[in-house]
From TrEMBL:
Organism: Halogeometricum borinquense (strain ATCC 700274 / DSM 11551 / JCM 10706 / KCTC 4070 / PR3)
SUPFAM superfamilies per record: Nucleic acid-binding proteins
Its job: Seems to be required for maximal rate of protein biosynthesis. Enhances ribosome dissociation into subunits and stabilizes the binding of the initiator Met-tRNA(I) to 40 S ribosomal subunits.
Name of the encoding gene: eif1a
Protein name: Translation initiation factor 1A
One MF term in the entry's GO annotations: translation initiation factor activity
Length: 96
């Protein structure tokens, strides 16, 4: 890559082994959101207390979620990407 192509690129947080990309579909209230995960499963995701006051999550946001081991239809939100970061992930083919 030339410097011009790489100029706007940032190193983004990528999912760990137990995390995956998801897009927020709906706000459910009570610190919960409905997300569509990269594996095609729709899950109810919980926004943990450490994120509630600091990070605003809206419909259409790209987030990282960690699906629960014992209940596959639920997950925890672990990270939210800014719009520019989500655009970069789409350009690089990480998310659809």
């Amino acid at each position: 890559m030339s410097d011009n192509e790489n100029a706007g690129r940032r190193d983004l947080r990528m999912p760990d082994d137990d995390e995956e990309f998801a897009v927020v579909q709906d706000m459910l209230g009570a610190n919960r959101v409905k997300v569509r995960c990269a594996d095609g499963v729709e899950r109810t995701a919980r926004i943990p207390g450490r994120m509630q006051k600091r990070i605003w999550i809206r419909e259409g946001d790209v987030v990282l979620v960690e699906p629960w081991d014992w209940q596959d239809e639920k997950a925890d939100v672990t990270w939210r990407y800014e719009k520019s970061e989500a655009d970069q992930l789409r350009e690089e083919g990480h998310i659809a």
